Amino acid sequence: MRARGHRLVRIDCPDHDTRMRTPAPSPLETLEGHIRVTLFQLGDGVDRVAIASSRPHLAQRLLAGGTAREAAERVGRLYTLCGRAQRLAAEAAAEAATGEALSADRLARRERQVLAEQAREHLWQLLMPTAGQAAAAPDPTPLRRIVAAGEEADALADALTRILTEHLLGEPPAAWLSRDPEALRHWCEAAATPPARRLAGFLRDPDPPVTAIPLLPALARWQADALRGLALQVFGEPVFCTRPLWRESPAETGVLSRLCDDPTLSAWIADMGRGSATRLLGRLVELARLPSRLQGDGPAVVRAWPLDEGMGVAGVETSRGLLLHFVRIEAGLVTDYRILAPTEWNFHPEGALAEALTAMPADTRLAERARRVVASLDPCVACQVEIRHA
């Protein structure tokens, strides 16, 4: 395909919830928008990267004016990916704004629901075929098992342990988590599981690690004062939710934010940096620790804070990263609503993706590496990558 004499390579990275989508956009895809990533090649390097998003930010338009319950129901219908997390965030933000107190049982149930959704999303990503194997279908057995387990803690923990041992790790999770980086690299080469094969391929042809873009703090590290300052920007700056900044810088959110201090992953990061292989390994580490997390061992994945009068914010740790909902309620009705999603952090025009792509060598594997990095940051909408000569 040519445009004004420039070579153009197009890579379509599908929306992960409509994996058999036909080329023609659906009404839902049009509503969700898409992301276009363009790499401008100059000589043997990438001169610059342009990231443009057509994602419409509809929270204020669609959620303001009704009750908090109506807003939560609409959120649940609007978002096909991480839909449970979106609805729970909407409910928790409204409860914080109105001062509603929840029982310990209800809070624990929310935690299980989010962890179950994390598990399903991680499992799908870990079973996806590698680049160049798009026609290969993942083994449906583990996916069926995780769906059948539901959200009851013991049943889900048992199912995850079996899936990890039989399909993903080839050994019990505890033994795998005890490996140091050298032993993990040996596992990548020796194991015959889908994640091991993918990691081995990534290690043979690594992409540049992210070093300049900081990690967004995980949910457990946020305090009300920091969120109050963020809320002022969210409500006061119309474009902030499209290009968010943390301490005046773009930031990366996701599994690396949550597990940067994890003993297994932190040793790997010190050795290998923050690239596609590390993000994939992070998913696997988080999934391997989920059985114990389901028994209440670990930081909260759903939190909410009352800010000023009638204002609340809630955060949920989704598989893609930190999801934040901000709401103002007056006389029982929503007057302001904003959603700050993980994709806006990770696909910021000057963020983690841009840094990694700009540092890539422009050889015959540029397109494949670019697609890999995009997939590792897991956009919640369709993403298209183009390579042009500058």
| Helical/strand content category | alpha+beta
CATH structural class:
Mainly Alpha
Helix content: 40-55%
Strand content: 15-25%
Strand order of the largest sheet: 3-10-4-5
Give the tally of structural domains. Answer: 1
CATH topology: the name is Cytochrome-c3 Hydrogenase, chain B
Overall pLDDT confidence: 88
Q: How would you characterize the largest beta sheet?
A: 4 strands, mixed
- For the terminal residues, how far apart are their CA atoms? 16 Å
Please mark out the parts with pLDDT under 50 across 5 or more consecutive residues, or reply none.
1-30
User: What is the CATH homology-level superfamily?
Assistant: Cytochrome-c3 Hydrogenase, chain B
What Rg is obtained from the alpha carbons, in whole angstroms?
A: 21 Å
Identify the CATH architecture: Orthogonal Bundle
Number of strands: 10
Order of helices and strands: EEEHEEHHHHHHHHHHHHHEEEEHHHE
Please explain how this structure is put together.
With 390 residues, the chain is of the alpha+beta class. It has a single domain (5-389), classed as Orthogonal Bundle (Cytochrome-c3 Hydrogenase, chain B). 47% of the residues lie in helices and 17% in strands. It contains 17 helices and ten strands. The chain has helices at residues 27-32, 59-63, 68-78, 83-98, 104-127, 140-149, 153-168, 173-177, 181-190, 194-204, 224-236, 255-259, 263-272, 276-293, 342-346, 352-358, 366-377, and strands at 2-3, 6-7, 9-13, 34-42, 45-53, 302-306, 311-318, 321-330, 333-340, 382-389. A four-stranded mixed beta sheet has the order 3-10-4-5. Helix 5 (104-127) packs parallel to helix 7, helix 10 (194-204) runs antiparallel to helix 14 (276-293) and helix 13 packs antiparallel against helix 14. The longest helix is centred in the first third of the chain and has 24 residues, at 104-127. The radius of gyration is 21 Å and the shape is globular. The chain starts with a strand and ends with a strand. Residues 1-30 have low confidence and may be disordered.
